[in-house]
Amino acid sequence: MKKNIIVIGGGISGLTAAHKLSKDGHNVTLIEATSQLGGLGTYFNYEGKWIDKFYHCIMPSDEPLLNLIEQVGLKNQMYWRPTRMGFAVDGKRYAFNGPVDLLKFKPLKFTDRIRFGIASLLLRQLGKGLDLDNTRIEDWFIKLYGRDVWKKILEPLFRSKFGSHAGSLPALYIWERLGREKNKSTRGYINGGLKALIDAIEQNIENYGGKILLNTAVEKIDSTNGKMKISLANGEMLESDWVIATIPVPLIKKAVSGTSLENLSNLPELTYQGVVNALFFLKKPLDNFYWQPVVNSNTEFDGVVEMTELVKTEQYNGNYMVYTMKYCSKDSGLFKEDENAIAQRWKEQLKTLFADLNLKDDDFTEIKIFKAPFVEPVYPLGYSKLKPRMRTGNSNLLLATSAQVYPSITSWNSSVGLANKVVDYLYDLENGKT
Q1: In a domain, 160, yes or no
Q2: pTM above 0.90?
Q3: Which of 87, 89, 44 has the alpha carbon at shortest distance from 321?
């Protein structure tokens, strides 16, 4: 039976859910608070080219995402390239792609290099059967790698992503993360950037009869007499049989506060890391490493992504594209700081880090700064038992948020997979199978 279903949030999870539901013949309304669909996949126009605000790649193992790309007719627009990794420590840069590079990695003592290689090689096997969900990553990694490796390399690396919470993360999250990416990997991208994929999904939703509302903020989510009620900021009220919320947990908690769903939600208190991203349009490449963590090198940014190691320079009008980033709270001073000040300061830091390349101001064609307040939850120990369930109590509010993909890495692929599972779960509920 055809149902009226509202999907809240126009990121990749919401787009996936709306696409699947509308394709299956349901009356779907997708609500997005901003002027663009895509969430962390939003984009901007630069001299006639659409550029991703935040860096993304596609891995060969990203089965749910690749299936979605095929469903919307873009499989033939995918291309793949081998990529390499570097590592900047104490202001010096190293290749970091295999045993030979590791043996030359001077930031670690020779014995620590050997231990690092062996432990990394066996890490997946060594974690099997352990309660890693309740084990601090600092405790487990010190046991495996030794305290010197933890203090010199691993702690700064995790601190760059998760701040002061780094050592307390569940080891399960890092252990699971290792299954997706390797230092030397083949990565994929779509001709036309993420906008091409978002546009294709949007077009498919509308072709299937779905409705998309942009610049539409949700204030409250409630349930009355078996119907879901959505109060919009513009004063309008929408009604549906089901609601799938894909927005961050703090925003869901705010939306159900004071409603009949508040006591049913049982959502965890989560801290989120946001991100400040700088995009440098350069006239020449850097080290030709796709990804390069930056540790103890007198930079505010903690990583350098040379996107043109993956994406063709034509996408950037012949420029080389470099992303640098700093994960931080949306309440931090950096997040609130003026974009121009960040751009000028980070430009000088990039020039210093790559001093041997003799970067001049003229080598910088353009600098753009973008910020996102909710990128990744900071997971507490034992999160497997705390993460939100798909269904809010016995109501018709279902959740498909980044806080539910744990222990998988937060990525477009995991969000697509989760959205598919939530829609399938909705169908099971409708058919009395659960």
Answers
A1: yes
A2: yes
A3: 44
